[in-house]
Amino acid sequence: MQHPAPFDLWSGHYKIPWDEPGFSGRMLAEHLNQDHDMASRRTAVIESQVEWIHARACGSRPCRLLDLACGPGLYSNRLAGLGHRCLGIDFGPAAIAYAELHAAPGCEFVLADLRGADFREGHEVAMMIFGEFNVFPPAEIRAILGKVRAALVPGGSLLVEMQTAAAVRDAGLEPPFEFRSEAGVFSAYPHRVKVENAWYEEAATARTVFRVTDEATGRERVYRSTNLAWSEDACRQLFAAAGFPRLEVAGDWPVPDPRLQLVVAR
To answer: CA gyration radius for the chain?
Structure first.
């Protein structure tokens, strides 16, 4: 297998196509699936994390929250039920449609790419949950953090649940494998998937390539997922440059996966 040069890692379609309508619709089913925690967590975990956000980030009082990469609104709608006002932004059309259909009073959802979206102003807490922070190249995540800083009130906080550097590296070093599916997130029809991983030490970046072959036609489609491993020092420098000089890891965040950690930036 030939890997791309590091300078090509962030070129072209380097993310899973969450915004394609068909892909988004199939992914929504995974978000709502209670048999695994792959797209969204199961309800019990989400509810425990919502209680943490309510108590620890908001001080058990109503506040204005910005939910970035909100998916189908599973956090925002529950937080609104506790009295908070929430703005959720995501570029998955099926996810946003579901969020809007089930929107609680005090919730607003916007279909938009975080890189170009208007985050508005006046939020007391912003959050990006479940590892999406790592899927952006450095320049883009710097720009997103700058917009978050401008959207928060003085003294506001940002919750970022990111993949640990070790987890990203380990994923890039995983051996290749294949599987077959009658229907899944990559296709609604029988297909085979080849998964190829690569780790780029100098770029601190892992890439996974999914080669999806339709069994009926033999047509192959290729998807990529690129993730950046942020060291502790690099992470602190990144957040400080964006206007978040105080950074800490929340050791009591109720996450069932040691590959993720919640960073609280102020």
So the answer is: 18
pLDDT level of residue 256 (50, 70, 90 thresholds): confident
What the block records as the tokens of 39 is 């797209």
**Exposure of 195 in the CB half-sphere (CA atoms within 13 A):** 13
Residues found in the chain: 266
Q: How confident is residue 3, by pLDDT bands cut at 50, 70 and 90?
A: low
Task: Using a cut of 0.90, tell me whether the model's pTM lies above it.
Answer: yes
- Burial label, 174 (beta-carbon count in 10 A; 0-12, 13-18, 19+): middle
Cβ partners under 8 Å of residue 238, min gap 6 = 138, 141, 142, 145, 230
Kindly report, residue by residue over 213-229, the tens digit of the pLDDT.
999 999 999 999 999 99
Given a contact cutoff of 8 angstroms between Cβ atoms, the answer to whether 161 and 129 are in contact is yes
